[in-house]
Amino acid sequence: MKKLVLKVCIVLFVFSCKTEPAIELNRGTWRAELQISDSLGLPFNFEVVSAESLKIFNSDEVIWVDDISYDADSIVIKMPVFEGYIKALLAKDNLKGHFINESLNRSVPFSAFFGNEERFVSKTKKANTDVSGNWEVVFSPDSEDDNYIAKGVFNQVGDEVTGTFRTTTGDYRYLEGVLDGNTMKLSTFDGAHAFLFTAEVSDSTMSGMFYSGSHWKEPFVGKRNEDFELADANTLTYLKDGYDALEFRFPNAEGELVSLSDERFKNKVVVVQIMGTWCPNCLDETKYYSDYYNANSDSNLEFIALAFEYSKTEEEAFKRIQRLKNDVGVNYPILLAQYGTSSKQKAQEKLPMLNHVLSYPTSIFIDKTGKVRKIHTGFNGPATGKKYEEFKTEFSNFVSELLEE
Q1: Are 373 and 367 in contact (CB under 8 A)?
Q2: Closest C-alpha among 253, 249, 305, 252 to residue 282
Q3: Do 399 and 292 share a structural domain?
């Protein structure tokens, strides 16, 4: 009996030592950095509010993180909605570890230091020009197959720069940084994507490199053009000849196959959202759609999302979907259209009536008779400012028109 009691005490002692943190995060501002190459770091800032919560800052964006766990001198910081998490060793005023995405088999070295509010270390503390305004940009300009156009929209105050790049498939989120002499440096980290842009800038041109974490980089060039605009997002995706409707049949979390022919969607205006829980632009769109749906739940309007997930198993994919629904408050159905890959080509095979799946997200507007009336490619999120407000107005007006028919 004494031996049994002794064993129980030992187990409890070991367990308590293993779970009780030896030290907690210092309250206040930290400067973090993802090491995306041997010589290049991607910085961002966060503020620790309590031992269990912090805020990540990207320009006007504030991301609340409240899933933080400790184990002796180690810490795990799980990002909201997205799969990625930070695992690090915790000292009094620094962190050292990795930013990890298990489904994509990615691990990027991570470090952070307490008490440093400077996002980028500026050598000159002075900008030699002003990048404020609109820029016509081409990514991968020397590649016939991979090049694509974008619109850079920036605002500069002193040597501090904010803004984003808009493309036909979405925007590159809230970018924040500096113009150090003639060198522009911008970054963002949202828990799914880590973006870094560096460029040499003159009064009218820029030439630089775009880094997506440690796994991707490509060059870009730009020139000032206040009149430049991207192609109309309502013209890029359409039904192929021979098709007059959208058809699908995908499972929900309960294993039920759902289609547009179900009673729930009959004689109603339906917005079909092609998306993924891993996609920041999709998250921005889902937040807006969820708020709109909840505010108009008594109308003849339905939303339905088709999730294309890179999670390796169906079970894991549905966990990601449920986490998104819980965190955002989504009350419309999200079906699992695909798992194991987020390939757009594979997605198009699931929806063969579309000319292509060009972007996550893509929204398909269906009237009360089941006819596709419009397809909107991509999403201009809050980081695009005026364009986001224009989208919301266009969306609301068009949906109202369909409801009145």
Answers
A1: yes
A2: 305
A3: yes
Tell whether pTM > 0.85: yes
Asked if the structure places residue 127 within a domain, the reply is: no
Residues 8 and 69 in one domain: yes
pLDDT digits (tens, 9 = 90+) for 353-396: 999 999 999 999 999 999 999 999 999 999 999 999 999 999 99
Dihedral angle of Cα 290, 167, 236, 303, to the nearest 10 degrees: 0
Tokens 């965190």 sit on residue: 327
Residue 385 backbone class (left: φ over 0; alpha: ψ -120 to 50; beta: rest): left
User: What are 354's strand-pairing partners?
Assistant: 239
Instruction: Report d(CA 366, CA 258) in Å as an integer.
Output: 16
pLDDT in tens, 310-358: 999 999 999 999 999 999 999 999 999 999 999 999 999 999 999 999 9
Return mean pLDDT, the chain. Answer: 93
